[in-house]
Design brief:
By secondary structure, the chain is α/β, with parallel strands linked by helices. The chain folds into two domains: about 140 residues, 2-Layer Sandwich (Nucleotidyltransferase, domain 5); about 150 residues, Nucleotidyltransferase, domain 5. It has eight helices and ten strands. Strands 3-2-1-4-5 form a five-stranded mixed beta sheet. The protein has a five-stranded mixed beta sheet with strand order 8-7-6-9-10. Strand 6 and strand 7 form a beta hairpin. Helix 1 runs parallel beside helix 3 and helix 5 packs parallel to helix 7.
Amino acid sequence: MSDNIPLQVDVYTDGGCDPNPGPGGWGAIIRWSDREWTLSGNDLDTTNNQMELYAAAAALALLEGLVGRCRVNVHTDSRYLRLGITEWINAWVQRDWRTRGGQLVKNQDLWRLLHRLTQAHDVTWHWVKGHAGHPLNERADCLATEARRALLHLHRPQREAGARTFTDDGQPVVEICVKVSCRGAEKRGGWGAVLRTGEHVKTISGGELGTTANAMLIRGAAEALRTLTKPCRVIFYSDAKYLAKGASSWVTKWEARGWRTKSGKPVANQSEWESLIEASRPHDVAWLLAREDDAPADLAQAGELAAEAVEQ
């Protein structure tokens, strides 16, 4: 080591998805004396835990490349990361990356990378409570959130410019936006969907009596997927957490519990969810929760279609 190698570096990391699993982002802040580096990145199909691991690994890898071995204090609000690297990982290595029950360790590729990188430095791990006002933790969270939201903006300019409509392996890329509208004591509901691939756009809608907004939302999503005539890479936008998180995460847990909630109650709209699962099966679907400030324009059009369907 040269005399310029820092004795101590502070690293603050964060990562997350919305929904989880789904599109995610990570962020890291590296501080050494009066110097600071910020890093961030994203992934269209990932998990909260993967983004937390990636943030820490990216920071340690940058330090390894820039300054070599140094003393690092890593600050994270992820108990999974801190406990994994300080308490669980040695046992995993001894068992050839298997859990005590003999199962393969989840996220093994990232854990292996992180294990190697921690051996390249003298690392101390610190847990901080998330969203509790710690300035650098909050900044790392903002970096991760901005990186995740950039995924939405990344698709929009390409779409408007008539960018590619196929993945590298020839699979069609389709963006779908869905919205619903319900009103009146008669519980009349409508849904609308806009499907876009490149410059080609298709709109569909439907409505019925005696329904709910949530049931219509799932119905509209399933009907939109059924219009696809071949397996596609689908980027699905909704501003409803019920659909985005339900389709990407909750249904798997509900199915495992025999369509019961965590508290043991029957899952609402089970038949609609089962129909959506079947409609999704041929496709590679990423469910994106669109926020007001970064929602695609097609989502507003889907809302207009839903409102019209209610009146029909």
